[in-house]
Amino acid sequence: MLRHHGVPTQSGDQGDMRLPDAVLIVPGGPTDRDHGAVAEPADDPSVTYVEPAGRPDDLHRHPPDSPWGLMTAEAAISAARQDATTRRRPDSLWLLTVAFLAVVLVQTLLPGVLAARWLQTWMTIFLSVLIQAMPFLVLGVLLSAAIAVFVPAGFFARALPGHPALAVPVAGIAGVVLPGCECASVPVAGALVRRGVSPGAAIAFLLASPAVNPVVLAATAVAFQGNPRMVVARTVASLVTACAMGWLWLRLGRPEWIRLPPRPELAGGSRSVAFWAACRHDLTHAGGLLVVGACAAATLNVAVPRHWLQTLGHSPLIGVLALAAMAVVLSICSEADAFVAASLREFSLTARLAFLVVGPMVDLKLFAMQAGTFGRGFANRFAPATFGLALVVAVVTGAVLL
Amino acid sequence: MQALVLLLIGAAVLRASAGDLYLRYVKPGLRPLLVLGGVLLVVTAAMSLWHDLRSRTDDGAPGGHAHTHGSRVAWLLIAPVLGILLIAPPALGSYAATHDGSVVQVPTVLRPLPAGDPVHLRISDYAGRAAYAHGAGLTGHLIRLTGFVYTDGQGRPYLARMVLTCCAADAGPVKVGLGGQLPAGLTPDTWVEVTGRYDPTTRTDAINGAVIPYLDVTAVRRIATPHDTYE
Predict the structure, then answer these.
(1) Angstrom distance (rounded) from CA A359 to CA A338
(2) What crossing angle do the helices spanning A199-212 and A214-223 adopt, rounded to 10°?
(3) Which residues of B fall within a CB distance of 8 Å from A128?
């Protein structure tokens, strides 16, 4: 059913852990999962094949995971069942064993490699981003699975105002109820779209909830004790950006940009089975993408000399741009970013506001997670637009309020 | 197999939060959430394994197909599992301190110094008073600070401690220059307890322009790395 191109390369060391091009893009492919249309990739000339190096075993034995993966349920089930019973298990266990052995071997034979200070710093930052985000990710995934499985399909359509333009600000303000950080809001927003919430409203929720929730605002108030207006400015700028992005989606967005991965486990079967299957899927999926984001954040944290960014703080305009870029690069949790912003005293308050508004909306780990949840076609357009808009709104808000 | 990955990452999170290991990466206050997250990961793994086994035995129930979903990305989660269980990198130290500017804060309220002789202070307390409050309340006292040693490009010695807000990704160092006579052989990342007096000398941090105050050291004692290395 699936063809693979490229020569399978040798697998079996830690190099296999790199991102195997998680989401392949099918421009203009069918998006309506409910109709279960079969998109046969071979028939579509616009399909981009990206052959990840070094992961031969997964690519061609993985029908349900494929990006076009809107196959009929029967095909998916039979393929996966065959998959599971024949080759998949021994291969995975083998891979896992090899990975463990590789680390142990490197540790014992080449202790100097892992003891390099920059590498240890990299690993510490990488693990700390993951460990810090993991509880919030788990809670967000449980909530999103509960929304996807237990909330009736029409509930949100009734709860939100009927007019999409009105639903956007309501959804944005509703973000206050999710006292987590941005890792939790991505899967929840994905579940909202599956439950029939208009993407514009889901976007407003996605962008607003990490920034306007009570925990984050309290942290901001503590960090900026000398400037209580910062809390107001952050709330206003974040809500305005979130709503503006929602409205922008209603005006310019195209449904085909959002490609929700097929979720056959959500249909049919008992609710308990569907709930745990959804939890497992979201945790492994969003968790894997979080690993990608944490890698990127740790790499830039270690590789980019901090004083490059700091010297930019002297010019007001460049300072705003520099801090916005830094927010994207550092990928700090929204519950902690206020303290980091408070410590960046060379920068103007407006620049620090831009840091606080951009950070929870666009950063490296969020980009990876959004690409995984909504499709890369969406993330590629959404992240730059959000970045630009958040920057403008932060500057204007800063000029008025700070 | 996704269930196995979840089980492993759950076990790794629980392993880290069971001892002091998690303190290398996150704030102590996060522990309850880590335990909860680890338990929920293990429960999710167990529930989906159970459903898998059941659907395999009745052969035909839905759910049996789900376990291959997204598993290419899922394998990436093995990286942190290996990192926590096998490597367990140390807390941030001299490398981070030399590559980041001091995050010394202007003290908002100057509380009276704690009792004691010498007075035990956190490095951030000492640095804040010494750098931005002209050593308010510090003169005339013997001060004791705990931190790790590092040297800058010119070989000047400093005492530093990383300050955490949430996790090590947002950590920044607080630095105090060490004046006076120091014993030889203080290699970077050696943990020491230094005793000394307020020294009005200051230096500007080349990375971010923050003020680095000095301590006139009279005694240095090597100590074991503390459980929680962050302030």
Answers:
(1) 10
(2) 40
(3) 24-26, 167-169
Taking CA atoms, B183 is separated from B6, B55, B145, B188, in Å, by 49, 69, 16, 13
**CB proximity under 8 Å: B 187-206 to A:** 206
Instruction: Compute the distance between CA of residue A184 and CA of residue A375 in angstroms, rounded to an integer.
Output: 18
Is the CATH number of domain B95-222 1.10.150.120?
no
Which stretches within A195-228 are classed as H helix? 199-212, 214-223
How many Cα atoms sit within 13 Å of A320 on the Cβ side? 19
Please report which helix (H) or strand (E) contains residue B103, including its range. none
State whether the Cα torsion A167-A170-A175-A177 is positive or negative. negative
Give the span between the Cα atoms of B62 and B56, in whole angstroms: 10
Distance CA A85, CA A128 (A): 37
CB-nearest partner of B99 from A279, A305, A335: A305
pLDDT digits (tens, 9 = 90+) for A47-106: 333 333 333 333 333 333 333 333 334 444 444 444 444 444 456 677 778 888 888 888
Please check whether residue B42 touches A, CB under 8 A. Answer: no
Reported ipTM: the value is: 0.92
* Cβ within 8 Å, pair B70-A281: yes
- Enumerate the domain spans of chain B: 2-89, 95-222
Q: What is the residue type of A363?
A: D
Q: Say how far apart CA B95 and CA A306 lie, in whole Å.
A: 13
CA distances (Å), origin B94, targets A115, A297, B132: 13, 20, 24
Could you tell me the residue ranges of all domains in chain A? 14-113, 126-401
pLDDT in tens, B46-64: 998 888 888 776 544 444 4
Residue identified by tokens 């912003």 is A341
CA angle A167, A181, A20 (to 5 degrees): 100
Structure tokens belonging to residue A387: 């970045």
Which of B162, B208, B214, B190 lies closest to B25 in space, CA to CA? Answer: B162
Q: Which residue, chain included where needed, has tokens 């993330």?
A: A379
Q: Give Cα A361 distance to the centre of its chain.
A: 10
Closest Cα in chain B to A300: B169
Q: Using CA atoms of A306, A308, A314, A319 in order, give the dihedral in degrees to the nearest 10.
A: -80
